[in-house]
Structure formats: structure tokens, C-alpha cells
Amino acid sequence: MGRPLLSQFLTLSNSSPLFAASVTCRRNPNELLKCTTGIFPHIGRKFRSLCTIPVADASSSEPAVSETSSVSIKKRVVSGVQPTGSIHLGNYLGAIKNWVDLQDQYDTLFFIVDLHAITLPYDTQQLSKVTKETAAIYLACGVDVSKASVFVQSHVRAHVELMWLLSSATPIGWLNRMIQFKEKSLKEGDENVGVALLTYPVLMASDILLYQSDYVPVGDDQKQHLELTRDLAERVNYLYGGRKWKKLGGRGGTIFKVPEPLIPPAGARVMSLTDGLSKMSKSAPSDQSRINLLDSKDVIANKIKRCKTDSFSGLEFDNSQRPECNNLLSIYQIVTGKTKQEVAEECQSMNWGNFKPVLTDALIDHLYPIQVRYGEIMSDGSYLDTVLADGARRATEIADNTLKNVYQAMGFLR
Question: So which residues are the signal peptide here (predicted)?
Fold first, then answer.
């Protein structure tokens, strides 16, 4: 069941914000588009001398909601996972587990990104089934529908509408630079790759910008896509926002918030059990490479027993010559809730024969309650339907307001 949005969504990065503030050019306004940083830092530097950051231009920098309001408003976080394959430990530790903490701190929307699931060949007979199973996994892992909205991407039609509008403002050169498209199109062959795989990052941008998201939890492999989302938000704000929008009857100011990456402190990139240099993935040919959340005790024990290790003595973090060791210790750290220092001290004198049973027991103990809860949720289909319908209604209210503003700012007759 998939990759976060960043796992694609969102199969969903380790640095401070990578983008400069919105800028206004003194000469030809078209030069602004050449001042974009992030994806094109060399071009941004070239034209920096032509640009100034606006200080008092309320029409171009006014936020949609006042930051100084006496009412405390939570920042918003959105994320999702594709309903393809099986939800595995990488999806859980890299994304879903972190959502449980985020829902207490932020206004959260977590969705099943089924529209992303059709960018490559898929089983039409299974799509609706695995979509529902993915939603059940969300809840079983601890996502609380009294705190977070849980819904299916395709149930909010604004995702597709905004994608088309954003596509008109997305330079094809930006998409051609996307690493995932290059890798997958090379692997699958041009005749087997649809246009959706190329434009997938625009849909991801739509997913994020629709909800005026403040933060997006992302992994290393999605960092480039979030950069594109940020650049695209800045570009649309410049092309259609500010005074131009106000002249069309809108409120003026920025159309989209420019989202920031939210990087979990550990587990953002869980690696394969058979290759410590490759990310754990549902698309890997061998099921031995991953721990699926619904794997039985015996299956988990067998996979850990057979996973790749090394011949060094003792166990340690952060040795570049021992990627498998670092990966397995990181997994153990997260599922036990211990600190890195505690795990390092506990395991430094262990050998693999001692450590593997300890890791196996920790994984089984951590996943068992999730598996039990999953079974309970799936046995009551009407409950899950109600959760998804309620989540879609709330998401639609937010998304439709954004979409209305975009249509207005772009000059459409409404």
C-alpha cells in the first residue's frame, strides 16, 4: 500500500528551508521568473542584483490569516501514503508513526493518495480494496479522527482541478529535472510510462497547496518534489496574486502559503533488509527486503534472521562501512522508544546472534497491537466508511475555498 507523499507523497528531508522570500524585479517583470531559487539557484544568483525583497507592500505579502490574531490557530500539516503494495515498516516509521505525534500539535489532514497510485500500471480490481485497507492502517497505527481528518484523495475533486490550473504555470523544464521520473521511465520504457508520471509532482503540489499547508512531513527522496511545490507556490503568487488579484475583486495578497519541510528526527529513511544502501520499498522484487505491518510473528522472525549483516565485531551507529548495522539499530531505537545513546550503549558489545532475537521481539511487540486494531477496524466496514466521508467533507470545505480563490485570481468567469 505504498510510499509516503510524499512516501510518495508522499513516499512524502534534512535541512532548513531551501527557498528565498518572494521577490519583485525592478526591470522587466518577467525576469522574476528567472529569480527562482531552490531548483535553479544559479539563475537566482545571476539575477539577484535586479531584485529587491518587498518590505511594505501589503498587497503582495498579506497572509490569508493574521499571525497576530488573539485566537491561537494551529499550523496545518498534510501527508499521505499510496494504496499500492503493502504498508511496510519504512512507510510506518518514516511517516505514519510520526503523524500520531503531529496530530496533537497541528491541524492535521492525512489522506490515501489513490490518484498517485495510477501513475504506473496497477490492478483495477484491487485499488478500492487496498485504499480502504490503507485507511484502516492509518487508524490502527494511532491516527485519531477526533484530532485529524482522514480521507481518500479522489473523494475531494479539487485535487484534480487545482492540478490542471497549476500545470498551466509549471515550466516543462522543472518536471524534466525530476529524478524519480528519469529513473522510472528508464526502468519501465517510454511506451509503458504515461504522462501522469511526468506530471505527478504537480498533483503533489496540488495536494499540499490546496490546504494552505504550513508543513509537510517528507523523506529524503521527496525533498526535490517539495522544492518544486515551494517554487510553484511562489511563481503562482507572483503571476496571479497581489494587486492583480485585488483588481479582479479578490482580497489580494498571496494565493498560497509556501510550505516548509518537516523532518522527523529519526526513521525518515528506513533501508532494505537485504541492502542497507537501498530504501525499503514495496516495489523491491523480494518480500524479504521489508517488514510489512501485517506480517505474522513467524514471518518477522524469519526476515530478521535472514537479513543482511556484516562481519565487524560489536554494533554501532553512523559507520559508513556498516549501512545495515546503522539501519537495524535505528529501527530498534524507534520501535523501543529509546534514545540513540541508550541503544548504542546497550548494543555496542553485542554480536548479530545476540541482537537479532532482541530486534525481532521488539518488532513483534510493537506491531502486535496495530495488527489487532487493524482487524477490529476492518471487521466494521460502516465505521470506516463514515470516517472517510466525514474526513472528505472537512477537506472539501478547505480545498474549495482555495480553489475558488485560484479561479478568481486567474481570471475565470465564475
Answer: none
Cross-strand partners of 320? none
Q: What is the rounded CA–CA span in Å between residue 37 and residue 251?
A: 27
Q: In what order do the strands lie in the sheet with 148-152?
A: 148-152, 107-112, 76-81, 215-217, 260-262
CA distances from 293 to 213, 301, 319, 403 (A): 28, 13, 28, 36
Instruction: Going residue by residue through the chain, which has 414 residues, state the pLDDT in tens, using 9 for 90 and above.
Output: 444 454 444 443 333 333 333 333 333 434 334 334 343 333 333 333 333 333 333 333 333 443 444 456 899 999 999 997 789 999 898 889 989 999 999 999 999 999 999 988 889 999 999 999 999 999 999 999 999 999 999 999 999 999 999 999 999 998 888 777 777 777 777 777 788 888 999 999 999 999 999 999 886 566 666 899 999 999 999 999 999 999 999 999 999 999 999 876 655 579 999 999 999 988 888 999 999 999 999 999 999 999 999 999 999 999 999 999 999 999 999 999 999 999 999 999 999 999 999 999 999 999 999 999 999 999 998 999 999 999 999 999 999 999 999 999 999 998
So which residues are the catalytic ones? 184, 279, 282
Dihedral sign, Cα of residue 195, residue 198, residue 200, residue 203:
negative
Could you tell me if residue 169 is left (phi over 0), alpha (psi between -120 and 50 degrees) or otherwise beta? alpha
What is the distance between the alpha carbons of residues 315 and 70, in angstroms, rounded to a whole number? 52
Contact between 330 and 317 (Cβ < 8 Å) = yes
Is the CB of residue 79 less than 8 Å from the CB of residue 95? yes
- Assess contact for 90 and 290: CB atoms under 8 A: yes
State the Cα–Cα distance between residues 335 and 163, nearest whole angstrom.
37
Cell numbers at residue 194, please?
504515461
d(CA 143, CA 162): 27
